[in-house]
Amino acid sequence: MSDKKNNKDKSKLYQETLSTQETEQCHKDIQDLNDAATAFFRIPVFFSHQNLFALGGPNPPFTDQQQFIIRMFKEIKKVLLFPRTLPNTEQYPDTTLENIRTMINSSYGLAAALLVPTGPTPTGEPYSPLLQIEPSMAYQRGLPLLLVIERAMQDRANGIWTGQPAPFTPIVWFSSTTSVDQFFDSVQWKEALHMWAGQVRSGYFAETGPEFEYRFNSND
Q1: Which CATH architecture has domain 43-208?
Q2: Is the Cβ–Cβ distance between 99 and 86 less than 8 Å?
């Protein structure tokens, strides 16, 4: 009698657990559908940055530089753009360059951040060479650029990070006096972000819009 009761209890518990899992799956499915519905407005852009582990340790608390990258990613998503990036940015194989070219060709803008790393790259550079290659490839393609550099990196950086004419002049983060929140709450950042996002959208609609539009009740 005791065994039958235990089996019934186990069966009931299994059914309740299954029901909970099914409910959670239904909520997940609904969320996926909602995400798919809003994905249309998320225009893909390339987010170029150092590997997070090059900016600090793998576990919390994160460094200011790691928090900066995470916050910048969220800021880009807030303006309904879809920031994409590539893993293993400290590596330098040919396949990575091919992947960069593919992603650049399928993006409508590029945002990049050059921050102070915890040390040199495995090959001895002060920062990953891809932080030069990725923005340069986007510039050659004519994509709108949004560049942010930490003040301490200005003395180490070169190439596209050395102060190109507007609107490609990098925004400087004075990390010694300005916190991550203060930077992203600043008027300078908000203006630059929305101006860049507007350029991205203009390029997107120019590329994806119809070659001609129907006209009704026109005398032409």
Answers
A1: 3-Layer(aba) Sandwich (3.40)
A2: yes
